[in-house]
Write a structure and sequence with these properties.
The complex is a heterodimer of chains A (391) and B (297). With 391 residues, chain A is of the alpha/beta class. Chain A is built from 14 helices and 15 strands. In chain A, helix 3 (59-72) runs parallel beside helix 5, helix 7 (137-152) crosses helix 10 and helix 11 crosses helix 14. Chain A is globular and about 70 Å long. The longest helix of chain A has 28 residues, at 221-248. Chain B is of the alpha/beta class and 297 residues long. Chain B has a single domain, classed as Rossmann fold (3-Layer(aba) Sandwich), CATH 3.40.50.970. Helix content of chain B is 34%, strand content 15%. Chain B contains 10 helices and 10 strands. In chain B, helix 1 (27-39) crosses helix 6 and helix 2 packs parallel to helix 4 (106-114). Classes of the chains: A alpha/beta (391), B alpha/beta (297). At the A-B interface, strand 3, helix 3, helix 5 and helix 9 of A face strand 1, strand 2, helix 2 and helix 4 of B.
């Protein structure tokens, strides 16, 4: 049995790393991530956690050192935010390219200003990392534990980010259930790399090394293998989510997306992260007034669950997508990807895009109700067939 | 302190495969052979962007990541990771170029030294970004012509002094720091074997002439490397726990002119410039000799 404690999101993240018995932590401060590594430093200092704790001199090093530790065969963890994540960009490609299952917490901070949006993680979207978004502190803790199991699965072997909105989660306290160490140990056994960088394994190590460098083979092969691993990860994420439920009694939709009150609706909205919590309140109010609209929370941004959106999109007449991000010169990122996912449907729902919460701009329940109303109008065939709006 | 070890003392066995992609006469390839010979089995190798992938015929398990600036962090992670899986016996070694050491990788190098990471950093120094065709680095000898410090009406080559990273590492308190040269293999092997037995941060900076970039006949690599040492352009010394020892201390240094004139990169030098180089070399040598056998600070 676990125990309950009121804690901020950053502490929940630190607990996830501790319960996963990480063996290596690279630490570098940046607001709003800093207290994650402070909590971990205290855990290591007090002997609660037995791990290599390395105070590095920048995020680039934090990422590269975690890569090295993972290559050696240790369970490695690091955490960062916003500009720190941008500084990691270069080695992040190396971590995923080498298929090193590093797990990293991203506490979102905008790349414009200190407040949260998803522009930091979205700037890394093509680095080949699995990216799992969380809505509250409990989900951060749970997803952090699951992230190791997903990343280290032999079918996947990809580094994994679990993320939550800075400030809104990082410094906000709420009750969180901390699972018992014994249960977590049973759920997540110690990491045993099949490819540690060690003498005596030279032949196998060299084979992996050659594949990693693309030497003596189709130069595209490692890209293809990584994409196949991403596809495989969709199944693994679902499995791990279910197994977590069996152990701990909590799950997050099917691990990829979570439907909230989506039975018998004519439309739904899509949100990631803490906006999903606000959206739940809006959906409750609207459904109480008889509006037939639900919420789909996008949990796995990478791999992107296109099949899920095709399945869900076939049941409704309109979808409203909230993006706490923008690909400048193009548009809302999840809006575009969901829209693309729906292309193969015989009958496609209308799809509307909304930019909200960038650089920490407040998103209120009323804002989401308005988004819902517009989406419902689209479901009735009113208004423009497609729309992008700034909230 | 180290003691010179002749190659034959280490036996017949080689730890590299017979061929690589390096240029003819590559100093770095010689470093790779000697390093693998000295370390034998029981080491792993980290590699970042440099000419290094051309010497990938080293048989030890190797990891290459395209993070030019990341050697210090990469080796830190490997070393700590191996410790955690109970394999601290394995030596974590990197053969890192001068760019990845003194320029883009310097922040990570300095931080790894600060943390006294249990790693062996071997810098093979060809004094420029040779893998990209020979651009100036912080290790380039002053007045050298490189592709980014070409000779022209308004340019006499590289103007800045070398960044003396071995001494910087020594001042940072690294347990073992040494310079070496491919022309003095017994000295280099001795230093490598000595370093292998030490725990903590070890740094060996090896002068590795590059015929392609320096502009000399590939058969003359050793001759040029030897000339650099004998003239004092590349003194051989080591610093163990803060005590400096000169490993090659001739009664008299050879004039720099001879070795400079062997290299195309110095062909443009006039007498006055050679004299200036000579004065700088003499002054540095005097200071080194004064420190020989004593504390460096």
């Amino acid at each position: 049995m676990g125990r309950w404690e009121v804690m901020v999101g950053n502490k929940a993240i630190a607990y996830a790393a501790k319960l996963a018995r990480v063996q290596f932590i690279s630490a570098y401060p940046i607001t709003p991530q800093t207290s994650v590594v402070e909590y971990l430093a205290e855990m290591v200092a007090s002997g609660e956690l037995d791990a290599e704790f390395v105070n590095v001199e920048g995020e680039l090093t934090a990422q590269t050192a975690a890569l090295g530790a993972s290559a050696a065969g240790a369970r490695a963890f690091t955490a960062t935010s916003g500009p720190g994540l941008l500084y990691m960009h270069h080695p992040m490609h190396a971590t995923s390219g080498g298929r090193f299952p590093v797990v990293m917490a991203v506490i979102h901070r905008s790349v414009k200003g200190m407040q949260p949006d998803h522009s930091d993680m979205m700037s890394q979207r093509d680095t080949g990392w699995i990216m799992l978004e969380c809505e509250n502190s409990q989900e951060l803790l749970d997803t952090g534990i699951m992230a190791f199991k997903i990343a280290e699965d032999e079918r996947v072997r990809l580094p994994t980010i679990f993320a939550g909105d800075g400030y809104i989660l990082s410094y906000t306290a709420e009750p969180v259930e901390i699972p018992s160490q014994g249960d977590v140990d049973a759920f997540l056994p110690p990491y045993r790399s099949n490819y540690p960088l060690l003498p005596g394994l030279a032949e196998e190590a060299r084979r992996v090394q050659m594949e990693q460098w693309g030497i003596g083979q189709d130069p595209q092969l490692r890209w293809r293998r990584q994409q196949e691993a991403m596809e495989a990860a969709k199944m693994v994420i679902r499995e791990v989510n279910e197994e977590f439920y069996k152990w701990f009694g909590r799950r997050y939709g099917n691990g990829l997306v979570e439907e909230y009150k989506c039975d018998d609706v004519e439309a739904f909205i899509v949100a990631m992260g803490t906006i999903a919590s606000t959206a739940r309140a809006a959906i409750d109010r609207l459904q109480a007034r008889g509006r037939r609209i639900g919420l789909v929370k996008l949990k796995s941004f990478r791999p992107f669950p296109s099949e899920e959106f095709r399945r869900l999109g076939a049941k409704v007449r309109a979808i409203g997508v909230i993006d706490r991000n923008i690909s400048l010169g193009s548009g809302g990122i999840t809006f575009q990807e969901i829209r693309s996912s729906l292309y193969d449907l015989e009958e496609r729902p209308r799809i509307l895009g909304f930019h909200a919460g960038l650089s920490g701009k407040e998103v209120r329940v009323g804002d989401i109700e308005m988004i819902c109303e517009k989406t419902l109008r689209a479901a009735k065939g009113e208004g423009p067939s497609s729309l992008v709006e700034w909230i | 302190m180290s003691r010179p070890i002749p190659l034959h003392e280490l036996g017949d066995r080689e730890y590299i495969d017979p061929a690589n992609q390096a240029c003819q006469g590559c100093g770095g390839a010689i470093v790779s052979r000697l390093v693998s010979k000295a370390l034998g089995e029981g080491f792993v190798r980290a590699e970042v962007a440099c000419c290094g992938p051309a010497f990938m015929n080293i048989r030890a398990p190797s990891i290459y990541v395209e993070v030019f600036e990341g050697a210090g962090a990469l080796m830190t992670g490997i070393s700590r990771g191996l410790k955690r899986i109970g394999r601290e016996d394995v030596v974590v070694m990197g053969i890192i170029g001068d760019g990845g050491t003194v320029d883009i990788g310097f922040q990570g190098l300095s931080a790894a030294a600060e943390r006294n990471e249990n790693i062996l950093w071997v810098c093979y120094d060809n004094e420029a970004y040779m893998n990209t065709g020979g651009q100036k680095s912080g290790a380039t000898t002053p007045y050298a012509a490189t592709t980014t410090t070409p000779i022209g009406e308004y340019s006499r080559g590289k103007l800045e002094r070398r960044k003396n990273v071995p001494l910087l590492m020594a001042v940072q308190g690294a347990p073992y720091v040494a310079t070496a040269s491919v022309a003095f293999p017994e000295d280099l092997l001795g230093k490598l074997v000595h370093a292998k037995g030490i725990r903590g941060f070890r740094y060996i900076h090896v002068s590795s002439p590059c015929p392609t970039g320096w502009g000399y006949d590939p058969k003359d690599t050793i001759k040029v490397a030897r000339g650099m040492v004998q003239s004092g352009l590349w003194p051989l010394y080591e610093v163990s726990d803060g005590i400096l020892r000169l490993n090659y201390k001739p009664r008299e240094l050879k004039p720099v002119r001879e070795v400079l004139k062997m290299q195309g990169r110095f062909r443009h030098l006039n007498d006055e410039e050679i004299e200036r180089i000579q004065r700088e070399v003499d002054a540095f040598w005097r200071r080194l000799v004064a420190k020989d056998g004593g504390e460096i600070f």
